[in-house]
């Protein structure tokens, strides 16, 4: 059996008590010889040289390697598409969150105005019966007129920008028609 001797040092607080423990057997005196570090089995170095030997690949490993090489161009293409679409999707999600916040904290009178503009679009659909061109022109036109009543400053800016773009498109169309005319009908 071992005999345990305790000594308490420090204040009476349990968390700060330190103990020294001495263990000894009653029959055997403690050995006087010390063990050296190199005699411990933990620190012994195995004798001989070790050599790395690579195991041959199995059929499963070969088929997986072949499959990975086959799929590499497709995975690279998917990674490129992901890196290109990720910013666009993030901006789309941010736009959706901003729209949601705007609709949750909308200015007073926003929803009645939105209802009138939507009703103007439905009236445009009713007036556009029968013709596909009318269905393309009347609903946005009626909605634009209703929106210009409620938001006149934005309507003026939109009209100015639209006028400039339509003018540029018209000039471009005239140039294309003139070039086509000169190439095909001036030779006659």
TrEMBL record:
<keyword id="KW-1133">Transmembrane helix</keyword>
<dbReference type="InterPro" id="IPR019166">
    <property type="entry name" value="MIC26/MIC27"/>
</dbReference>
<comment type="subunit">
    <text>Component of the mitochondrial contact site and cristae organizing system (MICOS) complex.</text>
</comment>
<dbReference type="Pfam" id="PF09769">
    <property type="entry name" value="ApoO"/>
</dbReference>
<keyword id="KW-0496">Mitochondrion</keyword>
<keyword id="KW-0472">Membrane</keyword>
<comment type="function">
    <text>Component of the MICOS complex, a large protein complex of the mitochondrial inner membrane that plays crucial roles in the maintenance of crista junctions, inner membrane architecture, and formation of contact sites to the outer membrane.</text>
</comment>
<dbReference type="InterPro" id="IPR033182">
    <property type="entry name" value="MIC26/MIC27_animal"/>
</dbReference>
<comment type="similarity">
    <text>Belongs to the apolipoprotein O/MICOS complex subunit Mic27 family.</text>
</comment>
<protein>
    <recommendedName>
        <fullName>MICOS complex subunit</fullName>
    </recommendedName>
</protein>
<keyword id="KW-0999">Mitochondrion inner membrane</keyword>
<keyword id="KW-0812">Transmembrane</keyword>
């Amino acid at each position: 059996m071992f005999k345990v001797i305790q000594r308490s040092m420090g204040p009476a607080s349990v968390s700060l008590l330190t103990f020294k423990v001495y263990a000894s057997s009653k029959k055997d005196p403690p050995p006087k010889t010390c063990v050296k570090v190199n005699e411990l089995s933990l620190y012994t170095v195995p004798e001989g040289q070790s050599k790395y030997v690579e195991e041959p690949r199995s059929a499963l490993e070969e088929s997986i390697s072949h499959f990975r090489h086959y799929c590499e161009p497709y995975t690279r293409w998917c990674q490129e598409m992901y890196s290109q679409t990720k910013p666009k999707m993030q901006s789309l999600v941010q736009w959706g969150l901003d729209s949601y916040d705007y609709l949750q904290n909308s200015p007073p009178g926003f929803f009645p105005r939105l209802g009138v503009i939507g009703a103007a679009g439905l009236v445009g659909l009713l007036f556009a019966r029968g013709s596909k061109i009318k269905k393309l022109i009347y609903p946005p036109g009626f909605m634009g007129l209703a929106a210009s009543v409620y938001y006149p400053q934005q309507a003026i800016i939109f009209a100015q920008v639209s006028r400039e773009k339509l003018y540029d498109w018209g000039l471009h169309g005239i140039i294309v028609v003139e070039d086509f005319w000169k190439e095909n009908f001036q030779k006659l």
